# Entry
Amino acid sequence: MSTATIKVKGMTCQACVNSVTKSLQGVEGVQKADVDLAKHQATVTYDEGKTSPSDLKKAVEDAGFEAE
Amino acid sequence: MSTATIKVKGMTCQACVNSVTKSLQGVEGVQKADVDLAKHQATVTYDEGKTSPSDLKKAVEDAGFEAE
# Structure
Protein backbone atom coordinates (compact mmCIF):
# COMPACT_ATOMS: atom_id res chain seq x y z
CA MET A 1 0.00 0.00 0.00
CA SER A 2 1.09 3.56 -0.74
CA THR A 3 -0.21 6.88 0.50
CA ALA A 4 -0.76 9.97 -1.64
CA THR A 5 -1.57 13.45 -0.43
CA ILE A 6 -3.50 15.44 -3.00
CA LYS A 7 -4.32 19.13 -2.82
CA VAL A 8 -8.00 19.65 -3.57
CA LYS A 9 -9.32 23.07 -4.52
CA GLY A 10 -12.93 24.17 -4.56
CA MET A 11 -14.41 22.34 -1.57
CA THR A 12 -16.45 24.72 0.52
CA CYS A 13 -18.69 22.54 2.69
CA GLN A 14 -19.07 19.10 4.19
CA ALA A 15 -21.11 17.90 1.21
CA CYS A 16 -18.15 18.75 -1.03
CA VAL A 17 -15.95 16.66 1.26
CA ASN A 18 -18.39 13.75 0.99
CA SER A 19 -18.41 14.09 -2.78
CA VAL A 20 -14.62 13.97 -3.08
CA THR A 21 -14.42 11.11 -0.57
CA LYS A 22 -16.97 9.04 -2.43
CA SER A 23 -15.29 9.66 -5.78
CA LEU A 24 -11.92 8.57 -4.42
CA GLN A 25 -13.39 5.50 -2.76
CA GLY A 26 -14.88 4.56 -6.11
CA VAL A 27 -11.43 4.14 -7.66
CA GLU A 28 -10.37 0.49 -7.78
CA GLY A 29 -7.40 -0.05 -5.50
CA VAL A 30 -8.26 2.69 -3.02
CA GLN A 31 -8.28 1.35 0.52
CA LYS A 32 -8.92 4.55 2.43
CA ALA A 33 -9.59 8.21 1.60
CA ASP A 34 -9.47 10.95 4.22
CA VAL A 35 -10.54 14.34 2.93
CA ASP A 36 -9.86 17.45 5.00
CA LEU A 37 -11.90 20.55 4.26
CA ALA A 38 -9.76 22.97 6.28
CA LYS A 39 -6.48 21.70 4.83
CA HIS A 40 -7.92 21.41 1.32
CA GLN A 41 -6.37 18.02 0.92
CA ALA A 42 -7.08 14.35 0.52
CA THR A 43 -4.90 11.62 1.99
CA VAL A 44 -5.41 8.39 0.11
CA THR A 45 -4.12 4.91 0.88
CA TYR A 46 -4.05 2.80 -2.27
CA ASP A 47 -2.71 -0.33 -3.89
CA GLU A 48 0.02 0.86 -6.25
CA GLY A 49 -0.58 -2.16 -8.48
CA LYS A 50 -4.14 -1.04 -9.19
CA THR A 51 -4.13 2.75 -9.27
CA SER A 52 -1.83 5.77 -9.19
CA PRO A 53 -1.80 9.37 -8.00
CA SER A 54 -2.76 10.54 -11.49
CA ASP A 55 -5.86 8.31 -11.41
CA LEU A 56 -6.72 9.70 -7.98
CA LYS A 57 -6.41 13.27 -9.24
CA LYS A 58 -8.60 12.42 -12.19
CA ALA A 59 -11.29 11.09 -9.83
CA VAL A 60 -11.21 14.38 -7.89
CA GLU A 61 -11.47 16.36 -11.12
CA ASP A 62 -14.29 14.16 -12.39
CA ALA A 63 -16.17 15.06 -9.22
CA GLY A 64 -15.92 18.72 -10.20
CA PHE A 65 -13.00 19.86 -8.04
CA GLU A 66 -9.43 20.84 -8.83
CA ALA A 67 -6.59 18.50 -7.86
CA GLU A 68 -2.87 19.09 -7.80
CA MET B 1 -33.70 13.86 -26.92
CA SER B 2 -35.53 13.38 -23.65
CA THR B 3 -35.56 15.44 -20.48
CA ALA B 4 -35.43 14.04 -16.97
CA THR B 5 -35.93 15.95 -13.74
CA ILE B 6 -34.09 14.37 -10.84
CA LYS B 7 -34.42 15.35 -7.20
CA VAL B 8 -30.96 15.76 -5.70
CA LYS B 9 -30.47 15.77 -1.94
CA GLY B 10 -27.41 16.91 -0.06
CA MET B 11 -26.24 19.88 -2.12
CA THR B 12 -25.50 22.82 0.16
CA CYS B 13 -23.30 25.16 -1.87
CA GLN B 14 -22.33 26.16 -5.39
CA ALA B 15 -19.40 23.75 -5.39
CA CYS B 16 -21.88 20.93 -4.76
CA VAL B 17 -23.86 22.15 -7.77
CA ASN B 18 -20.69 22.15 -9.89
CA SER B 19 -19.89 18.63 -8.74
CA VAL B 20 -23.32 17.26 -9.66
CA THR B 21 -23.28 19.13 -12.96
CA LYS B 22 -19.88 17.78 -13.93
CA SER B 23 -20.84 14.23 -12.97
CA LEU B 24 -23.99 14.39 -15.09
CA GLN B 25 -22.14 15.92 -18.02
CA GLY B 26 -19.71 13.02 -17.84
CA VAL B 27 -22.43 10.50 -18.67
CA GLU B 28 -22.36 9.52 -22.34
CA GLY B 29 -25.51 10.75 -24.05
CA VAL B 30 -26.06 13.77 -21.81
CA GLN B 31 -26.50 16.90 -23.87
CA LYS B 32 -27.25 19.39 -21.10
CA ALA B 33 -27.48 19.36 -17.30
CA ASP B 34 -28.97 22.22 -15.32
CA VAL B 35 -28.61 21.82 -11.58
CA ASP B 36 -30.61 24.05 -9.25
CA LEU B 37 -29.43 24.41 -5.67
CA ALA B 38 -32.58 26.08 -4.33
CA LYS B 39 -34.93 23.59 -5.96
CA HIS B 40 -32.68 20.62 -5.13
CA GLN B 41 -33.08 19.29 -8.61
CA ALA B 42 -31.29 18.55 -11.84
CA THR B 43 -32.89 18.91 -15.24
CA VAL B 44 -31.07 16.78 -17.77
CA THR B 45 -31.47 16.61 -21.54
CA TYR B 46 -30.20 13.29 -22.85
CA ASP B 47 -30.17 10.89 -25.76
CA GLU B 48 -32.49 8.06 -24.75
CA GLY B 49 -30.56 5.65 -26.95
CA LYS B 50 -27.40 6.17 -24.92
CA THR B 51 -28.46 6.68 -21.33
CA SER B 52 -31.46 6.55 -19.01
CA PRO B 53 -32.78 8.24 -15.87
CA SER B 54 -31.40 5.38 -13.78
CA ASP B 55 -27.90 6.00 -15.19
CA LEU B 56 -28.30 9.70 -14.43
CA LYS B 57 -29.31 8.96 -10.85
CA LYS B 58 -26.33 6.67 -10.49
CA ALA B 59 -24.01 9.48 -11.64
CA VAL B 60 -25.47 11.78 -8.98
CA GLU B 61 -25.02 9.09 -6.32
CA ASP B 62 -21.48 8.36 -7.46
CA ALA B 63 -20.74 12.04 -6.89
CA GLY B 64 -21.78 11.61 -3.25
CA PHE B 65 -25.33 12.97 -3.33
CA GLU B 66 -28.74 11.36 -3.06
CA ALA B 67 -30.93 11.13 -6.15
CA GLU B 68 -34.57 10.21 -6.48
Chain A is about 30% helix and 35% strand. Chain A touches chain B through 18 residues (CB under 8 Å).
